[in-house]
Fold this sequence. Notes:
single chain; alpha+beta; six-stranded mixed β-sheet
Amino acid sequence: MAGYEAPIDILRKLIQTYGTCAIVACDGEKVVGQLRFYPKIICDMNGGCLCLQQDQPAGPTDGFADNDFPELAAIEDKTLSVHCMMTGSSLQAENPYQRKGIGTGMAKTLIQWAGANGWEYIEADAFEEIPWIYEITGSAGYTFWEKLGFHIADRHPHPHLEGEDEFVEKLEAQAKAVGISPERAKDRIVMRLDLV
């Protein structure tokens, strides 16, 4: 979002409380990939979604940093939620960083870090294998996560993909082109990895 400033107070509090909330891939000094994640309990405190690059409803509520962020030892459900994973820039016409193993490397780094730091589960939203979803959402297809040991924990219609608009029309067209029903293309697939 042009001109949007990330809520530094929330980032600072997440890092101080949990150690980090992102994995970054670099090519020299250039950032070429990012994977953002948060404790599921923190996302739930914000209505289930926490995008620090957007305003409400996807972004944090006003005063969100004033909430108490529980220490890991006090959290019953020790689940990390992957919010977004991207390589290169969605603003590029061609992305030389896609399909180079960067996303896989970041996900493996997250898995290793989470296991070493007391987290028990990782969840990631995924979709069917449709390019339009990758370009817009920062989510990978479910087979990406399956290759890393995740399994499908839940599947349900995505609430933001109901109705008709340009995004949904393009999604349905791409789904039909690759043999996926338009209804399945609009599903949110929750992938889960057990670390314990």
